[in-house]
């Protein structure tokens, strides 16, 4: 069974939703979406999914509810939601930036804006997806904290009682914050990736356990779902191509 | 009961430089573009604009009409970054009050409910507090003692929104899947101008769809503008989807060239110019 890097990424993203229960899954981006739908079809059958617009849908697209933006924002505040979003920059404590690069007052590169990241991170378990792990993304300090990381949350007391950064998945591996100071730890490597490769692509010092496991192998049924049901067109390999990285 | 119909030009003639203006829709969806185009034909400037931003912001920023923008994002959806807004920001052309999407909603709600602020569990811990040094926090007076951001009311001098149908009195109906926040924009504003795809008799409104689709109440609406394709090139489901091809053209064309070709005269001239552009593409 020849599993592609993109497929390992889908599996790692799917595992984000394990044990989430009957909550709204908000995956942003292609591979997180494939992961959420795979989880919904297999080990997380109670997840609620959206069509990306205003409908809650079953995996076959049948509507089962209405969730316009306003209700979505209310649901974020209510907490019955878990999400995986992107990060233009992320630091060792899981502070995330999607707003701009450079000085906020006059940015070198204007990006999306803070969007819902401050609300998300104080209310819902949050994970991040980075399709191309690099020193431009995994930085010493993010230029603007949109999503709140553990060092910031530590000073917020009761206001941060729902704060939890679950995991970061990149095209190189899986990262969590299971360290005494809640800084980033290498939790798993996608097969074929070395610790050295991850270190070279990361600006800050990662905690690396003595034994780093590999991202788990997909089950045959999972692989069939990814290839035949969820992404028959192979869009996943355009987001995470095979072969040597630049 | 008064007939509130007016032209887009009449609606925007009631706006003044320096006003705080709310614009409905979300990203590149159901934006009141005919009203924005009409606004661009006036000399109105120094605006404070409050918007879940899309090409409305791109155009007004490119034309130098925005003094201050209050937003959580600016995007064209299928094109993630709005190029004209982006260029304006990178040139330092406008002041920005960047807040979270949920804070934005609370600000509109506070204004609609005549409250000075609403508490929100968002913002603290993030740099939203650093870049908006005027933001204050509030502590729960109950035993939990939690600290919240006191999101100030986003009071609007005027709101511009676009819906599918309206009657002459200002009752507005949306037929797509999402109301966005258009009724809140109207409720938060001293004056609200609603453009619509088609003006119909009041009796027609409830025939076309369920009562829940009657989003805008006439008591919150100042003017009604019939503007077919008034959201173009953003989406106005189910009447039409986003004009992706034209949006790509907008995004790829230098602003003076785009404005010169499409935004010089009135709305009819705009539609004719788009049609001509489309013909050229087919040839």
TrEMBL record, chain A:
Signal peptide: none annotated. Coiled coil: none annotated. It comes from the Bacteria. Transmembrane segments: none annotated. GO terms for molecular function: CoA-transferase activity. Keywords: Transferase. Gene3D superfamilies: Glutaconate Coenzyme A-transferase. PANTHER family: ACETATE COA-TRANSFERASE YDIF, CHOLESTEROL RING-CLEAVING HYDROLASE IPDB SUBUNIT. Belongs to the 3-oxoacid CoA-transferase subunit B family. This is CoA-transferase. It comes from Streptomyces pluripotens.
Automatic annotation (TrEMBL), chain B:
One of its GO terms (molecular function) is CoA-transferase activity. The keyword S-adenosyl-L-methionine does not apply. Keywords: Transferase. SUPFAM superfamilies: NagB/RpiA/CoA transferase-like. InterPro entries: CoA_trans_fam_I, NagB/RpiA_transferase-like. Gene3D superfamilies: 3.30.30.40, Glutaconate Coenzyme A-transferase. Transmembrane segments: none annotated. It comes from the Bacteria. PANTHER family: KETOACID-COENZYME A TRANSFERASE, SUCCINYL-COA:3-KETOACID COENZYME A TRANSFERASE SUBUNIT B-RELATED. This is CoA transferase subunit A. The lineage of its organism: Bacteria, Bacillati, Actinomycetota, Actinomycetes, Kitasatosporales.
